[in-house]
Amino acid sequence: MSDLETMIREWDGLGTVVRFDPLTGTWIFIALHDDTLGRPMGGTRMRAYPTPAEGLRDAQRLAEGMTHKWAGAGIELGGGKAVLAVPRPLEGGEREGLLRRYGRLVDALQGTFSTGQDLGTTSEDMAVIARETRFVHGRTEGGVIDPGPYTARGVLAAIRAVVRHLFGSDDLAGRTVLLQGTGDVGSPLARGLAAAGARVLLSDVDQERVGGLAEELGAETVPPPAVYETRCDVFAPCAIGGVLNRETIPRLACRAVCGSANNQLDRPEDAELLHERGILYAPDYIANSGGAIAFALMGRKAPAEEIDRRLAGIGDVLERDFAEAAREGLSPLRIARRRVERMLGKEEAA
Ligand code: PHE
After folding, report:
1. Cα-to-centroid distance, 296 and ligand 1 (Å)
2. 118 lines ligand 1 (CB under 6 A)
3. Domain containing 161: what range?
4. 147 pocket-lining for ligand 1 (C-beta < 6 Å)
5. For ligand 1, is residue 183 a contact (CB within 6 Å)?
6. What number of CA atoms fall less than 13 Å from residue 102's CA on the CB side?
7. How many folded domains does the chain comprise?
8. Looking at residue 37, which CATH number applies to its domain?
9. pTM score, whole prediction
10. CA of 169 relative to ligand 1 center, distance in Å
11. How far apart, in Å, do the first and last CA atoms of the chain sit?
């Protein structure tokens, strides 16, 4: 892993805001990737990384993902993301102190960057940040709402599009979907899938969390190391990124991959490995755009029906991308990227 200086200098985004918080030993990275369509907006992730450089790398890659997410959804916002690279899990007053100082930093940017919930942060955390700045999305009179259920609704529409493309019908009854991660998005997604009659397999590094949900839904659980080999129709990564790589792709026993995690592919070329194996890949930044879309629309006071329509529309977008990919013999990621680059006024991808 290269050092912070090189990573900040060589990144092809707009720039990176860096602050070290001495009171908690936290590195704060706000990566601003692109503002072609609008001002950067993206979630705030909190995690203990092995090194600060890995936190910075995550922020930069996630910011780029947000650029694609907004462009893919046709929403006039830019790509950005924040990472709070904590030295260890923070609780209580320490956590609140960090969040308040971070909130003041976001406020000082005067809207150049606005944020919301992401992996490792909660809606309560967002409410703390919102005491310092108005540039937090999902604020209501009662507090800050959780984007997870909206993201889950979008992923469910995406999974239906996948199943329709593969099997000719979007009926989920009897289809097996394996979820990696049962957190903020995975749990509501699992409930939606179970209600639609799917056979749901659950996996999570947090045994307690996965056990409770499995019991609630009468679902089976899969131990984390066995996830990649487990036979299923759809594998849904709903946790960390980088899980689709040279090592895992040859092991997959699924027909399709469609989940909520950001940056599921280790490298863009891994989409081609999936394509060669005949595994249909729903580009993550399309499948997981529900929360972002819902929050952007709420910020514009859009009616609930419009939000419903846009979440369902994620399935239609994917269905068109899949059909185009099949016609051209290309991976769906190539098709999605071409559309996004057109939106951003860039050259078509080679
Ligand atoms: N963090 C979520 C995502 O990556 C949702 C979100 C996006 C929340 C932007 C707020 C702002 O899409």
Report:
1. 9
2. yes
3. 148-343
4. yes
5. no
6. 37
7. 2
8. 3.40.50.10860
9. 0.95
10. 30
11. 28
